Amino acid sequence: MADVTISGLIEGGKATGGPPFGPALGPLGVNINAIISEINAKTKAFEGIKIPVKVIVNPDTKSFKIEVGNPPTSALILKELGVAAGAKTKDEVIGSLSIEQAVKIAKSKEGSLYGNTMADRVKQVLGTCKSMGVKIDGDDPRTAIKKLASGELKV
């Protein structure tokens, strides 16, 4: 029998034997508790953020593999700020990140952001900040993007 893939969006470190994984894994005869424990261990760093998780099970051998996706950049920004949602209007400001926090987010998303350099990846994070109503060091994110492009700001 071919491998079975079960996907779900769970809050980091808080997977349970309930949906989305428990009911799908039950009929496969695998150790659900072992799978849930491994998911929670692999996602603990993303506590408070919903992240995509795939469980790939071989029904014949009962072996499994867990793949943890990257949370959206916007979710990481909200977590850094400690707020629940982005701006509702284009003039609303929900908070301010430091450039160091933007670099930290870019590093955690390194595998999924485009761009050859860290500066390019930080610019993507800053673009997301702009659309969410988040300032960088109290200033418009576009200012930080220009400083990165000119070399005035180094990351």
Largest sheet: 3 strands, antiparallel
CATH C-level class of the largest domain is Mainly Alpha
CATH homologous superfamily placement of the largest domain = Ribosomal protein L11/L12, C-terminal domain
Q: How large a portion of the residues is in β-strands, by DSSP E?
A: 15-25%
- The CATH topology of the largest domain is what? Arc Repressor Mutant, subunit A
CATH architecture of the largest domain: Orthogonal Bundle
Mean pLDDT: 91
Topology of helices and strands:
Layout: E1 4-11, H1 22-25, H2 32-43, E2 50-58, E3 63-68, H3 73-81, E4 95-97, H4 99-108, H5 118-132, E5 134-136, H6 141-150
Parallel strand pairs: 4-5
Antiparallel strand pairs: 1-2, 2-3
Overview of this protein structure:
- This protein has 6 helices and 5 strands; from the N terminus they run βααββαβααβα.
- With 155 residues, the chain is of the alpha+beta class.
- It folds into 2 domains: 65 residues, Ribosomal protein L11/L12, N-terminal domain (Ribosomal protein L11, N-terminal domain), CATH 3.30.1550.10; 78 residues, Ribosomal protein L11/L12, C-terminal domain (Arc Repressor Mutant, subunit A, Orthogonal Bundle), CATH 1.10.10.
- The chain has a 3-stranded antiparallel beta sheet, with helices on one face. A two-stranded parallel ribbon has the order 4-5.
- Strand 2 and strand 3 form a beta hairpin.
- Helix 4 crosses helix 5 and helix 5 packs antiparallel against helix 6.
- The longest helix has 15 residues.
- It is elongated.
- The mean pLDDT is 91.
Précis, in short:
The protein has 155 residues and is α+β, with helices and mostly antiparallel strands. The protein has six helices and five strands; from the N terminus they run βααββαβααβα.
